[in-house]
Design goal:
The complex is a heterodimer of chains A (122) and B (814).
Chain A: E1 7-14, E2 22-28, E3 31-37, E4 43-47, E5 61-63, E6 66-68, E7 75-77, E8 93-94, E9 96-99, E10 102-108, E11 115-117
Antiparallel strand pairs in A: 1-10, 2-3, 3-4, 4-8, 5-6, 6-7, 9-10
Chain B: E1 3-8, H1 12-24, E2 29-35, H2 47-52, H3 57-60, H4 65-70, E3 74-77, E4 81-85, E5 90-93, E6 96-99, E7 102-105, E8 109-111, E9 124-126, H5 130-140, E10 146-150, H6 154-165, E11 169-174, H7 186-198, E12 202-205, E13 209-213, E14 220-223, E15 228-230, E16 233-236, E17 240-242, H8 245-249, E18 258-259, E19 271-273, E20 278-279, H9 288-302, E21 315-317, E22 325-329, E23 338-344, E24 349-356, E25 359-366, H10 372-381, H11 396-399, H12 406-411, E26 418-420, E27 425-426, H13 427-437, H14 442-449, H15 459-470, H16 490-499, H17 505-511, H18 523-534, H19 548-552, E28 555-556, E29 562-564, H20 575-587, E30 592-595, E31 601-606, H21 611-620, E32 633-638, H22 652-663, E33 672-677, E34 691-696, E35 699-704, E36 707-708, E37 712-713, E38 716-721, H23 724-741, H24 748-755, H25 757-766, H26 768-785, H27 789-794, E39 806-808
Parallel strand pairs in B: 1-2, 1-7, 2-3, 7-19, 9-16, 10-11, 10-16, 11-12, 18-20, 32-33, 33-34
Antiparallel strand pairs in B: 4-5, 5-6, 8-17, 13-14, 14-15, 21-22, 22-25, 23-24, 24-25, 26-27, 28-29, 29-31, 30-31, 34-35, 35-38, 36-37
Helix pairs in contact in B: 1-9, 13-14, 13-15, 16-18, 22-23, 23-26
Classes of the chains: A mainly beta (122), B alpha/beta (814).
Domain Nitrite/sulphite reductase 4Fe-4S (chain B): 630-769
Family (chain B): Belongs to the nitrite and sulfite reductase 4Fe-4S domain family.
Cofactor (chain B): [2Fe-2S] cluster; siroheme; FAD; [4Fe-4S] cluster
């Protein structure tokens, strides 16, 4: 089979699964992706790894378009994954699309299949 | 010999006049100042913020004892002048008399009390001086107290908003069809009404008061249409009349007010009059700007310099925090007038300009008032606006293109543009003073130019002028702001949360004008704590504004795993507890177990998804959360005390357990660690804790404000109490005082140093009533706080926190 380049959109759950100004994690093999929901219901996805000391960004406080890492308070832009202010560095971002309430996450083609374990709608 | 000047009335006008006088000729007169109130000059227009709890009385005093002493003013406050004897040139009071060469009458005005039955009942008051404010504040302390404010003008509405802010049920009765009809057109009056109604103030327009009802004191107000509003207090704010009695009795020319010429001289050349008691060219003034003009002219006249008072246009701003309203000039409709109106309902903005012959006659702005000064400036100068008519209503910034930077707008103002309407200070004067006198702060500018020193609404403009003139060297924040989202410091935020009864984070951000849409990781946890602390029963804790540790009730570690510390009351455990911990460690393969500095056992390296199951197991053994992650009570460390120790004087273990069981679960500004030692050998190391107890033969020595972390500091002694009960009451009261006053993340030792150790001792040791009140408030808040977060989560609360949203498996590569 030919190796595809490009993106594959994978459904990961619904908007209600994530609290406003909060995040949930999606596991993709060894990687954890943090999916954030802002106060105005925009959704972003970043690798759950602060560029500073690999802190879990999903555990941070979400404010405006940023998250503050719980380990050492670096502030990371949800849109670009870049550290804000005087800090330098960035974390990988993933495209996210909302289809109604459904959240679709873009992964590099071939890196994920359909959902193996279904979403938790708690 | 120095001439004798007697001034009757210690209000805003006379205070200002004396300043100008001493500036011009400090030794010209021997001054005696009479005031009916038992206090000196203060800024009366700031009584509304005092009533609202946004300012203290001390903050609005304009002249204090030192100032009077420095200028050798003889003060006779609390002494009412009853008579002027013009033949002998003396004034008389109940206590004596005083001779004058020149007399200045500045008796101001008296509130107009409408002549209805019941107006003399206790509980009916005006809103005129500090005593009125104190009476209203006292009335508002009663739960569910009700106020009826008669008069929907500037003063009545400021009183109504402030009383509502203090929690009273408030009804405003207004005779006319819409609020503030002298300053506002009906449309703006409607917006204002809506805003006030949204705050829970009831507005009754076209309300004709028939009688005030009550036997011993006021009970209700009856209207002509039969409506009855129950009331604990009635505030009359229907208007003022010039206070002219002594002038009339002395045979001076008095119409509505004391008639004065352009030099503020009455019909007697040795008697001047200024302020709200005078009438000039058939006009009486009630706003502060013209009164200050009068003060300046009178001071000149006294030193025989030439100056003349001219009638002035005045602009009005309502001092109700959160309501922006500006009105100036004349906005009645007439055939030869045109109007330009801008409405933006979603933003709550209404702007109306009235033009005649291409000149601004009047302006009413609601919701967005930053261009008020600019319109008013053109109004006073009679500027021809035909060139910018199309875009005039969009304001000054629009004229120069798309300038949204407020600094640019201020920079663009001409030097003669008036910045401070109250004191008539223009931009050039302020910039000149900053540069010429090396001024560096807002207070400096206020001291030297008076700009923004009265009602304070132009403070922002003055600050912009400071930064414009000084550039980066201007540091506006005397207090450190909470974070970049606001200019307010922690104390201001806490005070305003209470004064304005703000009960959610969005409400705080809206009302206190946060600069960001949803705060940041610094301010949100702080606000969440302040709200939890101030409204324990009403506030819904915002978990998304808590640091992760407090959200999942465990401590995050460097690798993203968590540590868990069960509570061991007073550091005492048992074989059953230890066995349960051992089983949990085995079952969940917990990699590290460690004894902590606070006499607890810490299990480290737990995966987040395992936390609820770990807690469920621990709960079965009777454990609750140890709150080792909390800005709250962590541990009470104890020694074995009189149960075992041959030196022990009291049951230190028992007291420690009792304190911990009483106080666990409470949130505090920063973590609180305690200890109880059974004798002065102090094995529990109580003298470096936030709160410590050293047991002695005669009782319990309570210590506080120790530190053994970033800083090392021995405790301060609070005092000695006899019994365990007293020890508990004192400790709880101390912690509650800290909960109410501390800045978020400020440990007890820093808080206590900031407010003073003696002040803490005074409130907790010496003032039994206050101590009891603190204690009761703590007990009340514990009703809502003592819920074990672990068992809640083991039973399924917040389960989204502990599970992945989805797990995607890797596709086998081909």
């Amino acid at each position: 089979m030919m190796r595809m380049t490009g993106q594959e959109w994978v459904p990961i759950g619904t908007l209600h699964d994530i609290p406003q100004r909060g995040a949930r994690c999606v596991r993709n093999g060894d990687m954890t992706i943090a999916v954030f929901r802002t106060t105005d219901d925009r959704v972003f996805a970043l690798e759950d790894k602060c560029p500073h000391r690999a802190g879990p960004l999903s555990q941070g406080i979400v404010h405006d378009g940023c998250v503050t890492c719980p380990l050492h308070n670096w502030v990371i832009s949800l849109e670009t994954g870049r550290a804000q202010g005087a800090d330098e560095g960035g974390t990988a971002t993933f495209a996210v699309r909302l289809e109604g309430q459904r959240i679709l996450l873009a992964l590099p083609c071939g890196s994920a299949s359909a959902i193996a374990e279904s979403c938790d709608h708690g | 010999m120095t001439e004798k000047l007697v001034v009757v009335g210690a209000g805003m006008a006379s205070g200002r006049m004396l300043e100008h006088l001493f500036e011009a000729e400090p030794n010209a007169f021997d001054v005696t100042l009479f005031g009916a109130e038992p206090r000196g000059n203060y800024n009366r227009i700031m009584l509304s913020p005092v009533l609202a709890g946004e300012k203290t009385f001390e903050q609005i005093v304009t002249h204090d004892a030192d100032w009077y002493a420095a200028n050798r003013v003889t003060c006779r406050f609390g002494e009412t002048v009853t008579k002027i004897d013009r033949k002998r040139k003396v004034i008389l009071t109940a206590r004596g008399e005083a001779r004058y060469d020149k007399l200045v009458i500045a008796t101001g005005s008296a509130p107009f009390i409408i002549p209805v039955a019941g107006r003399d009942l206790p509980g009916v008051m005006a809103f005129r001086d500090l005593d009125d404010v104190n009476t209203m504040v006292a009335a508002a302390e009663k739960p569910n107290a009700r106020a009826v404010v008669i008069g929907g003008g500037l003063l009545g509405l400021e009183a109504a908003a402030a009383l509502r802010g203090r929690g009273m049920e408030v009804v405003v009765l207004h005779l006319m069809g819409h609020l503030m009809e002298r300053q506002l057109d009906p449309a703006a009056g409607y917006l204002l009404r809506k805003e006030l109604e949204d705050r829970g103030i009831r507005i009754h327009t076209e309300a004709q008061t028939k009688a005030i009802l009550g036997d011993e004191r006021v009970e209700a107000v009856l209207l002509d249409d039969g409506t009855i509003y129950p009331a604990d207090i009635v505030v009359m704010a229907v208007g003022i009349r010039p206070e002219t009695r002594i002038a009339t009795d002395a045979g001076l020319h008095v119409e509505r007010g004391i008639v004065v010429n352009d030099h503020m001289t009455s019909s007697d050349p040795d008697i001047l009059a200024i302020g709200e008691c005078v009438e000039h060219e058939s006009i009486c003034y009630g706003l502060v700007a013209p009164l200050y003009d009068m003060a300046k002219v009178a001071a000149r006249a006294l030193v025989r310099e030439d100056a003349a008072f001219r009638p002035v246009e005045t602009a009005t701003q309502l001092k109700v925090t959160g309501v922006s309203l500006y009105s100036a000039g004349d906005f009645a409709e007439a055939d030869d007038r045109e109007e330009i109106v801008l409405r933006d309902a979603s933003a709550g903005v209404y702007k109306r300009l009235v033009l005649k012959d291409n000149r601004i006659m009047g302006a009413v702005l609601y919701g967005e008032t930053s261009d008020g000064g600019w319109f008013f400036d053109m109004l006073k100068k009679g500027t021809d606006v035909s060139d910018m008519r199309e875009t005039l209503i969009f304001g000054q910034a629009f004229q120069g293109g798309a300038q949204l930077d407020p600094m640019a707008a201020v920079a663009a103002l001409p030097d003669d543009a008036e910045i401070c309407g109250c004191n008539g200070v223009c931009k050039g004067t302020i910039i000149g003073a900053i540069a010429g006198k090396g001024l560096a702060s807002l207070d400096d500018v206020r001291a030297h130019t008076k700009a923004s020193a009265s009602c304070g609404t132009c403070t922002g403009l003055v600050e912009q002028l400071l930064s414009l003139t000084l550039g980066d060297t201007y540091n506006p924040a005397a207090v450190t702001p909470v974070c970049g989202c606001t200019d307010l410091g922690h104390d201001d935020v806490r005070r305003l949360i209470r004064a304005k009864r703000l009960k959610s984070i969005p409400a705080v951000m809206q009302e206190l004008e946060w600069k960001t849409s949803c705060g940041c990781a610094k301010c949100r946890p702080a606000l969440n704590y302040y709200l939890v602390s101030d409204w324990p029963d009403e506030y819904a804790d915002d978990y998304q504004s808590r640091f992760i540790n407090e959200r999942v009730h465990a401590n995050i570690q460097k690798d993203g795993t968590y540590s868990v510390v069960p509570r061991m009351w007073g550091g005492v455990t048992s074989s059953a507890e230890l066995r349960a911990i051992a089983d949990v460690v085995d079952k969940f393969d917990i990699p590290a177990v460690k004894v902590t500095g606070g006499q607890r056992i810490d299990m480290l390296g737990i995966r987040k998804q395992d936390l609820p199951a770990v807690w469920a197991e621990l709960s079965k053994a009777g454990f609750v959360s140890g709150h080792a992650y909390a800005k709250g009570l962590r541990t009470v460390k104890t020694c074995v005390g009189s149960d075992w120790c041959r030196f022990g004087t009291q049951d230190s273990t028992g007291l420690g357990i009792r304190i911990e069981k009483f106080m666990w679960g409470s949130w505090t500004p920063a973590k609180v660690k305690m200890a109880v030692s059974g004798c002065p050998r102090n094995c529990a190391e109580a003298t470096c804790k936030d709160v410590g107890v050293i047991c002695v033969e005669s009782g319990f020595e309570i210590h506080f404000a120790g530190a053994a972390g970033l800083d090392i500091k021995g405790t301060e002694k609070l005092g000695l109490v006899r019994s365990e009960d007293e020890a508990l009451e004192h400790i709880v009261a101390l912690v509650q005082m800290y909960r109410e006053q501390g800045h978020y993340l400020e440990r007890i030792y820093k808080w206590a140093k900031r407010i003073g150790y003696d002040e803490v001792r005074r409130q907790i040791m010496d003032d039994a009533d206050r101590r009891k009140a603190y204690f009761d408030r703590f007990v009340f808040s514990q009703k809502f706080a003592q819920v074990d977060p672990w068992s809640e989560r083991a039973s399924g609360k917040d389960k989204h926190e502990f599970r992945s949203m989805a797990t995607l498996s890797l596709e086998a590569a081909e």
